[in-house]
Structures are given as structure tokens and as C-alpha cells.
Amino acid sequence: MPCPHGCTPAAGLLSDADTLQLMIDAFEAGGNDDPALREMLVRCLDDPVAARLMSRYMRGDRTIAAELARRLQTNTTTRFGNE
Fold this sequence. Notes:
Layout: H1 16-29, H2 35-46, H3 48-58, H4 65-74
Helix pairs in contact: 1-2, 1-3, 2-3, 3-4
């Protein structure tokens, strides 16, 4: 995510997918036991459109909240399939 002061890491910013994977890893390492949250992040990771929307939402753009919710409701495929 961009720095509010305009700083840019030498290696560049993380992609939306890398940011989501980092969040999933952090939640798992921290002992987060909310499966619904993990599933939402995995759905975003598996859907590039949802990943972009989630990235915008995390940066503070709440105007896309309804669109993100609709996208997550209609996209039920995860990396684990429809088990």
C-alpha cells in the first residue's frame, strides 16, 4: 500500500495479490480463528477484480464497499474449489 507521505520502497510496492497473501499469513501466524475472514481474503486472492477492490477498500476507498460485497457474494470459487 502506498505511503501517505509518498515514499516508495526500493523494490516497489507489493501487488494486490501479494498484499492479500501477506494478510492471510499474518492472520494465521497471529492465531486469528475467524474462518469467515480467511475465506473472504482467499476469495479476493483468487479473483483479480476482487483483489483490486479489496486493495482500494484497505486504502480507505469506501465508495466501492457495495461492489466488493457483491463481487464476493457472486464469486464462490476458491483455490480449494467448491468443497
